[in-house]
Amino acid sequence: MCTLSETKGLNVTCFEKGSELGGLWTYNPTVGDDIHQSMYRYHQTNGLNEMLELPDYSFVEHFGHAITSYPPRAVMLDYLQGWAAKKKIDVTLNRKVVSTKYDPKTEKFTVVSEDTQSASRISNYYDFVICATGHFSVPNHIPPYQGMDDYKGFAIHSHNFRDARDHAGQNILVIGNGYSGEDIAMQCCKFGANSATVCYQFEPMGVDFKDWAIIEKPLPSHYEKATDEFVFTDGSRGSYDGLIYCTGYRHTFPFLDPELQFTTGNRLVPDTLWKGIMHPDNHRLMFLGMPDQYYTFSAFHAQSKFTIGVIEGRVSIPSKEVMLADTLAWQKKEDELPADNHKTHHRFQWEHTEHAAQLGGGHLRDDSLLFDQWHDDRHHDILTYRDQKAVSSVSGVASLTFGTPWTKTFTDDKSAYLAWCKSEYQTIMRRSKL
Questions:
Q1: Which of 28, 102, 136, 30 is CA-nearest to residue 255?
Q2: What integer pLDDT is reported at residue 206 of this predicted model?
Q3: Nearest 5°: CA angle at 296, between 292 and 302?
Q4: In which band, very low, low, confident or very high, does the pLDDT at 5 lie, cut at 50, 70 and 90?
Q5: Helical residues (DSSP H) of 320-411, grouped into ranges
Q6: Segment (H or E) for 265
Q7: What share of the chain is helix, strand, coil (3-state, %, to 5)?
Q8: In 146-304, where do the E strands start and end?
Q9: Same fold for the pair 2-21+91-137+249-366 and 148-245
Q10: What is the rounded distance in angstroms from the CA atom of residue 63 to the CA atom of residue 44?
Q11: CA distances from 15 to 90, 112, 113 (A)
């Protein structure tokens, strides 16, 4: 949005159904599948902020000082909102898109949107539509396990997980061992859960949680009412206060007409979309942020360069058949990547996104070494990787090491965090001048 707003000659409208900018980085204590936000209290980024940093706006520029490499959620939100303020973008808040139709005769989209507070609707007409709703807000619910009709504990999707303190003293069963499953299990145990059992479908994480009460098991086969136990596919059993399904999210676009829809699983090269961005049946409809994500903000920025190139007529658009063949060729490369080698995965994502960005005259910063560091830090010690530091590729400034390790940090107070960072940075600067 910011990149589009800076482009001369474009009249850009942005609808945001939330009450503030920031998307998933905003926090909403209300739960429910119809709530967009999936963030929970006490969340610190599980990736280096140096990998998230936008190419034209450093954390040092925003805050006036360095911060840690794994800041709290509210700090990341502050940064994103600061970038939007610097770019002076105009966003209509509290407005959700209800329907989007395309008329091939006029080459115009009719977009109906609704004020979320008054339910008042308006229609607008556009030459291009860019969907930047993300794909981490609509839960991917799996069928209940046999016997769960008799289960008396709670069962929620991670989308509706809000506060680890709610599970103090409990034994938690986590279904899914991706990054969400790993982090929610750690959050629960950090804030007082008795234990967390994380279930995997294919392979265990293989992480050493040391003395933390986190173990891994294969998936349950069923729940047994007589013993109040879940029976796992390896024959083991366990009794739990509740289940948290960390089973991912779905790409859904209920506001798009059927002919504008596309479907895909969560993968580095999404199905259908050319360069992971353009709908092959309508070159005026584009999507940002649809791939599975190693790269995030910087990739969205790079994708926007492709988008602008299309709008300005600088990108040569091939036939639908060529687009789909190109997508399949990239997916074949993705499928041939070693499943357990994440270092090849993020390099592949850089290559794919960089190719799209270059078509529009843009570029994606190569953060391969930062991703390697993040990967190695996590595997060295899952409990201390958030205490590590890195150097920004944008400002050249090294991050700070917080005064309290992550395992002992039980607050997400933004003001206190930033006050500490400012003081620590000033102390480092004074010492460097001695």
A1: 102
A2: 87
A3: 105
A4: low
A5: 320-335, 342-359, 368-380
A6: none
A7: 35, 20, 50
A8: 154-157, 171-175, 195-200, 214-218, 220-224, 229-232, 237-238, 242-245, 278-279, 282-287
A9: yes
A10: 17
A11: 9, 11, 8
CA 381, CA 347: separation in Å to the nearest integer?
23
Question: Rounded to an integer, what distance in angstroms lies between the CA atom of residue 319 and that of residue 323?
Answer: 6
Task: Determine if residue 86 is left, alpha or beta; phi over 0 gives left, psi from -120 to 50 gives alpha, anything else beta.
Answer: alpha
Q: How confident is the model at residue 4 (pLDDT cuts 50, 70, 90)?
A: low
CATH number of the 148-245 domain: 3.50.50.60
| Apex 55 CA angle, 50 and 57, nearest 5 | 85
Cβ neighbour number for residue 126 with a 10 Å cutoff: 16
Residue length of the chain: 434
Give the CA distances from residue 113 to residues 4, 13, 76, 104, 133, in Å, rounded to whole numbers and listed in that order. 20, 12, 28, 21, 14
Q: Can you point out the beta strands (E) in 20-94?
A: none
Q: Which CATH number applies to 2-21+91-137+249-366?
A: 3.50.50.60
The structural domains of the chain, with segments of one domain joined by +, span 2-21+91-137+249-366, 148-245
Strands 171-175 and 242-245: parallel
Which distant-in-sequence residues (6+ apart) come within 8 Å of 347 by Cβ? 368
d(CA 77, CA 37): 13
Is the pLDDT assigned to residue 1 strictly greater than 90?
no
The Cβ of residue 40 has, within 10 Å, a number of other Cβ atoms equal to 22
SS3 assignment, position 349: helix
The predicted model gives 183-196 an average pLDDT of: 98
Answer yes or no: are the C-beta atoms of 255 and 97 closer than 8 Å.
Answer: yes
pLDDT digits (tens, 9 = 90+) for 218-264: 999 999 999 999 999 999 999 999 999 999 999 999 999 999 999 99
